[in-house]
Amino acid sequence: MPQRNGLLKELIASFLIASGIAWLTRVLLWRDRTAILLYHDPDPDTLDRHLTYLRTICDLVPLDALAQSSAGRPRAIITLDDGHAGNAALLPIFLKHKVRPTIFLCSRIVGRRRTHWWLHPWAEQAGIERLKRLLNSQRLNELHVGGFSQDGDDQATGLSLEQIEAMQPFVDFQSHTRFHPILTRCDIRECANEITDSKREVAALAKGACVHFSYPNGNYGAREIEFVKAAGYKTARTCDVGWNDSRTDPFRLRTIIITDDASPSWFAAQLTGIPLFLRYLRGGGWAGRFPQF
């Protein structure tokens, strides 16, 4: 099945490129806007190929430059969610391409012997997507049955303190909550603490200002936006598909999710936003909105 899916992706990518749709999307939709690309844990060679291609079609800018004028050219911002340990190996690629990415950290997972909850063996056995839909307390109870405790020592899957320190001069570290819960499945206290406390903790970890936020799993609503504003963040990135300009709500920044192992042709196809838009449509999300629980 994976081989079949891979072939289908390449066929779709070939069509989007050969038909001119990929080029037309860049001209009509991307144009002078900014695409915020979302990765998680890509390998260095794949990211190197992606950035090599990106530099031929757009300007690469840091997240802090989002509000600045684009000078009429398409722009892209590189972001990575979760703070995976593998991100440390990407530093030479960032330096090679003169890119300053933003890595959104889970502040109580990185720098400790802790596991991102969905990477725990029990989570896969219990069903990761099913667990996401549970109330946060229910999810934690089920994971506890399988031997997982979000406050307990386990296998380290996040960046270490030493890695964060080494990367800090070249990377912007920002907030992705403390433990990566689904915020819309948290009670009021849990939601507020995850958003507010992570801001302070990330600032301490990275020894710099924490002013940008990323909603875990792309789930958010009016309550979450209000908490982000009240905590003093300047922006929040969603998983809603699209490009950003001066009219974009800074607390609902749109993104283009990139598959960590995307081939060059599938990467070019994903930059159109079309595969993601169709995936959301099948899941019940309209107008490019990430399907909410």
TrEMBL record:
Pfam families named among the record's database cross-references: Polysacc_deac_1
Localisation: Secreted
Keywords per UniProt: Membrane, Signal, Transmembrane, Transmembrane helix
Location (main, coarse): secreted
InterPro entries in alphabetical order: Glyco_hydro/deAcase_b/a-brl, NODB_dom, Polysacch_Deacetylase
GO molecular function, one term: hydrolase activity, acting on carbon-nitrogen (but not peptide) bonds
Gene3D superfamilies: Glycoside hydrolase/deacetylase (3.20.20.370)
Domain NodB homology positions: 72-235
GO terms of biological process kind: carbohydrate metabolic process
Transmembrane annotation, as ranges: 12-29
CDD domains: CE4_NodB_like_5s_6s
GO cellular component term of the entry, any: extracellular region
Name of the protein in question: Polysaccharide deacetylase family protein
